[in-house]
Write a structure and sequence with these properties.
With about 240 residues, the chain is of the alpha/beta class. Helices cover about 35% and strands about 20% of the residues. The strands form 3 sheets. It has a 5-stranded parallel beta sheet with strand order 2-1-6-5-8. Strands 3-4-7 form a 3-stranded mixed beta sheet. Strand 5, helix 3 and strand 6 form a beta-alpha-beta unit. Helix 3 crosses helix 5. The longest helix is centred in the last third of the chain and has 19 residues. The two termini are about 20 Å apart. The mean pLDDT is about 95. The protein binds ligand 9D3.
Length: about 240
């Protein structure tokens, strides 16, 4: 998969994709991630990327021209109907559909080229959404200052699902019983730390008993803080 990120803060991404699973996936050729400075596609002498909102109001709006030019550079066309098969342009925005694991799976399974546009300021000229964008994604119901942290979240969740991205020792976490539930508690040595004991069941070597305990703890935790997951309201964790 190829991922292109369009941003006015390219330095934000300097190190963030160079760790752990994403780094390994890049080195293995499973994903190629490129970050592009939207400002480099501005053609006026001041390299303007934002302007005052028509109709008045506070804040600035991201101008359409540099974003259209950036899409032409990375996709080959700014005509959405002519995007190559397997290509999708996604806008990170508070107005987007709340991002879920199910969407990460869909993107990882179906796309070969993902383009992420990171908004800033009060918003992006709506003609970008109307003409270029296939989907708008929000990462949740809280306000962040721009699309950049959201792009990192979306990229991470997708790359770890690409075939071969997880080592054989971590891939198990994808299938097991815990599907759709929060995880059970984990412990390692020492068996007693500052008076806090590891539950006996984990020390007795009875693996059937241990799996039963883990399943019951996962269910209990999910019921207490994420009832929505039990009702299947939160898609496919
Ligand atoms: C005046 C209304 N505000 C919306 C709640 C303005 C505003 C807030 C935050 C405009 C832009 C932003 C920047 N946020 C994002 O670009 C963003 C975001 C978010 O704020 N929350 C969750 N997901 C995302 S994805 C991009």
């Amino acid at each position: 998969m190829k991922i292109d990120v369009l941003t006015i803060f390219p330095e934000f991404f300097e190190k963030v994709f160079d760790f752990g699973i994403i780094r390994r996936a890049k080195l293995a050729g499973i994903v190629e991630i490129n970050v592009h400075d939207i400002r480099e596609f501005a053609t006026d002498k001041h390299k303007m990327v934002d302007d005052r909102p028509f109709g008045g109001g506070d804040g600035m709006v991201m101008k359409p021209e540099p974003i259209f030019a950036a899409i032409e550079a990375v996709v080959g066309t700014s005509e959405r109907d002519n995007y190559p098969a397997g290509t999708s342009v996604v806008m990170l925005s508070p107005q987007g559909r709340p991002f879920k694991q199910a969407a990460a799976k869909e993107i990882a399974g179906e796309l070969t080229h993902l383009v992420l546009i990171c908004g800033r300021y009060e918003g992006v000229d709506e003609r970008v959404n109307d003409a270029l964008v296939n989907a708008e994604i929000s990462i949740g119901d809280y306000v962040i200052s721009g699309g950049e942290p959201a792009a990192v979240v979306v990229v991470d969740s997708i790359v770890r699902l690409l075939p071969g991205a997880l080592g054989s020792d971590t891939s198990a976490e994808n299938d097991s019983f815990s599907d759709g539930l929060l995880d059970c508690p984990h412990y390692t040595r020492p068996a007693e730390f500052r008076g806090m004991k590891v539950p006996d069941v984990l020390l007795n070597g009875n693996h059937a008993e241990i799996e039963k305990w883990r399943a019951s703890k996962a269910l209990e935790k999910t019921r207490s803080i994420r009832e929505d997951l039990l009702k299947g309201e939160n898609g496919d964790m």
